[in-house]
Amino acid sequence: MTKDDLGDLTFGVFQLKRARSYAEERCSTTNLTSDVAYSVHRCKIIPNLIRIPTQYAHSNRVTYHPTIHFTDQAILGWWCDCFTGARFLGCCSHTASAI
To answer: Which of 5, 40, 77, 82 would bridge with 64, disulfide CB 3.0–4.6 Å?
Structure first.
């Protein structure tokens, strides 16, 4: 997936900037040249459905769970339990970070 593809999913630059900051917090560095180690939970019933727990940027005690349905070629859908995660256009920052 290219940066342009991700931009098409987010419908804006805010989510991309927040996604980067979530990834930087996850690996405790601003040098994102390697993979970011996220915990990935796979669905036992639907093989291409994953959930990635993501810590909220403003509180260490809050975790959101972006859920992504995908194939090898495309992202089919997403949902997150954050306030903006179930919107119709674009994905939230937690989902963008997971993708």
So the answer is: 82
